[in-house]
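Tokens in:
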């Protein structure tokens, strides 16, 4: 039986109205297993906490995903299959009517954008995403997309993010790009800003909600 990716679930308090998947980064090539103590994995723990703290009382459940292997691994797109399996787990747990929003960093941003064609997904926040030339966009049709990138990032390309956004606008009008001045790839210059940006984006998807929080950077 094929193994499943590991998930840490922070349940909503009361009825689950929205599920957020939090996705970590990785490597271009890496067949080795992930662990809970790898920096890319740990980096997203505060994001999960921030979203949980902001949304649990309002029905937001947070599923933090750890892929089975560390790398994208070319055509295998290893983390995409893992996330698609988790999306099916969410659907089985909560039904077809509970929307899903994904928040991913670096390779996790690329993964979230690739997996956004799942019918439960309503939106994606990709933070400092790794977006090689030629990434598909059709799967984002009808989704809401937030792309945020530090202007001093040297690991992934802010310019590539803007070029990708131009292509995404061909399939959905609801695309927002946020440039974070002076920020690098690790999002450590002002981590609270990134946490709040992600939580605000997630809360804006609550049914009947205008978020009640500022979604302006």
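Residues out:
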């Amino acid at each position: 039986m094929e193994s499943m990716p590991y998930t840490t679930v922070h349940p909503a308090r009361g009825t689950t109205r929205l599920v957020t998947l939090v996705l970590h980064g990785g490597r271009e090539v890496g067949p080795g297993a992930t662990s809970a103590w790898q920096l890319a994995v740990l980096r997203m723990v505060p994001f999960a906490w921030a979203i949980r703290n902001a949304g649990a009382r309002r029905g937001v459940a947070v599923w933090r995903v750890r892929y089975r292997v560390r790398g994208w691994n070319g055509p295998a797109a290893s983390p995409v299959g893992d996330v698609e399996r988790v999306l099916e787990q969410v659907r089985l747990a909560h039904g077809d009517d509970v929307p899903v929003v994904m928040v991913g960093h670096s390779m996790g941003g690329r993964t979230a954008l690739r997996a956004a064609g799942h019918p439960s997904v309503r939106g994606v926040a990709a933070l400092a995403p790794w977006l090689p030339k030629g990434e598909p966009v059709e799967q984002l049709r009808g989704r809401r997309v937030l792309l945020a990138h530090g202007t001093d990032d040297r690991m992934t390309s802010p310019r590539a993010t803007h070029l990708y956004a131009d292509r995404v606008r061909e399939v959905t009008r609801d695309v927002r790009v946020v440039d974070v001045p002076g920020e690098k790839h690790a999002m450590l210059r002002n981590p609270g800003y990134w946490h709040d940006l992600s939580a605000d984006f997630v809360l804006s998807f609550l049914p009947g909600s205008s978020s009640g929080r500022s979604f302006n950077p």
